[in-house]
Amino acid sequence: MSYQVLADGVLDPETTVFYIFPSLMHYTGPIEGQWHAKASINAGAKFYIVGRDPAGMGYPVEKRDLYDTDHGKKVYIVRGSRT
């Protein structure tokens, strides 16, 4: 999916870099999204795409996710782009 934005011309392949962020999983849920965004911005990224929580965890009692699919995005929007 990430490479599709290059193929579709959404992002310029000459100025777009995809990378693997080898961060340990110290956080989960919305805080993980904030950690990755802040680390990426501090490393020089000008934009950060917030998608579905990649490390969603199940609720320990019921069979449902602890966080909804857009929780990380909502927290980032409320917090704003402050670093």
TrEMBL record:
InterPro entries: Rossmann-like_a/b/a_fold, Sulfurylase_cat_dom
Domain of life: Eukaryota
Pathway listed: Sulfur metabolism
GO molecular function terms listed in the Swiss-Prot or TrEMBL record: adenylylsulfate kinase activity; ATP binding; sulfate adenylyltransferase (ATP) activity
Segments forming domain Sulphate adenylyltransferase catalytic: 2-75
Record's keyword terms, sorted: ATP-binding, Nucleotide-binding, Transferase
GO biological process terms on file: sulfate assimilation
SUPFAM superfamilies: Nucleotidylyl transferase
Protein name, as recorded: Sulphate adenylyltransferase catalytic domain-containing protein
Organism: Rubroshorea leprosula
